[in-house]
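Input sequence (390 aa), recorded before submission:
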Amino acid sequence: MDGRSTDGASLPACAPLLLARARARLRSVATGHEGVNRELTALHAGSRYHRLGAVPMSVPGLPALPPELAGPVAVELAKPVREIPHPGALTGGCRYEPKWDGYRLVVVRERNTARLWSKQGRDLTDRFPDVAAAALAQVPPGSVVDGEVVIWNGDRLDFGLLQRRMVAAAGRIAALAAAAPASYVAFDLIAAGGEDLRGQTLTRRRAALERLARRWAPPLQLSPVTADAAQARQWFDDFRPAGVEGLVVKGAATRYAPGRREWLKVKSWETTEVLAGGVIGALERPSQLVAGRYRDGELVVVGRTSPLTPAQSAELAAVLRPAGPDHPWPERIGTGRFGGGRLSVPLTRVEPATVVEVSADAALQAGVFRHPLRFVRVRPDLRPEDLPPV
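Predicted structure, token format:
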């Protein structure tokens, strides 16, 4: 891989539109199955997307995969960092990839089957039959591919559509797949021809993955990668409106380390405004802000902040007022995502008249922030009606 290559970038069909508009400083980015894929493919040396026909369904005499690669498969993990690492930060030099907002999924293609395994070791073949069928037709037997399953909804990735697949009754999966097809974005190859590749360097594994992906067509895609930190920064900034969460950074000379956090991940954050609808803790000393926005005229919970510092708590407490009797939120709120979960804590409801600026990553689901927000400041210059609805 040279320093500026995207090494065979190919996503859901969306490439020239995305960066072309981003370079023109447009905030509304055309992505989806036509946007990001063509753009990222063009970053390489033109499209490498070829329909070369299906691979053999089975190969006589092919050696069986090692037991630890037959599924479930332990995957390498990433530890969070705040800044994009410099090019020499990892062994062999950094390789930067987009961080997709989806489910980690390992494709295990044996002699006559293709099975999909989650990071937690769950067999998800029945949840994503569209991806499994494509893997059976296009991935050679004896291969184990590491990647992410995503679903596009118009101009951005939609994590909620993935979750529908996870909870739907078995009889509903086919209809969901037809209405919102999944895409599989591959970024590593850990077995080929029945041979374990985990002991090989990322550079060699990536080259093997690119050779494999030359036969692919949607929904199988090849995630882009670059050694150019400037290009990585551009992806970091420009792909956020499409729901790309940031970057994953890997060392070019490193081996695949199952279960270890040797990759790095850096999330893209930007500020937005929310309403102070409630707090965890006392009104005079809040420990967390529970953020709200209006949906069809009703105040709904859209997220909560990470714990406030003493200075942030004092700044927020100075402008909060107790809620009136018509506040729509309950007296307790769950500790899980979106205020759910089995455990709950008391919620101090406040008059939803204070606008607060927060920092958020790109992980959204139906207008709700899936990950904790970061308190930035109170915005006395803004009114609740200045905020967009959910």
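Checked by second reader. The domain at 50-267 is CATH 3.30.470.30 (D-amino Acid Aminotransferase; Chain A, domain 1).
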